[in-house]
Design brief:
Layout: H1 2-7, H2 12-19, H3 23-49
Helix pairs in contact: 2-3
Length: about 55
């Protein structure tokens, strides 16, 4: 899966070549994946912000 490879830091060109799509497509997917990762981690911080332990 491309997302796993993004997390490993693989180059977009290597991913594109292996799955036979354009590098530009992989770059768009990576940008979307990256923003979802930031959004997800910020939600975790906000949800846990008011919790006392």
């Amino acid at each position: 899966m491309a997302a796993e490879r993004f997390a490993l830091g693989e180059l977009s060109s290597a991913i594109a070549r292996e799955i036979r799509v354009s590098v530009r497509s992989v770059q768009r997917w990576r940008r979307t994946w990256s923003s979802e990762q930031r959004f997800s981690s910020s939600n975790v911080q906000v949800i846990g912000a008011g919790v006392s332990r």
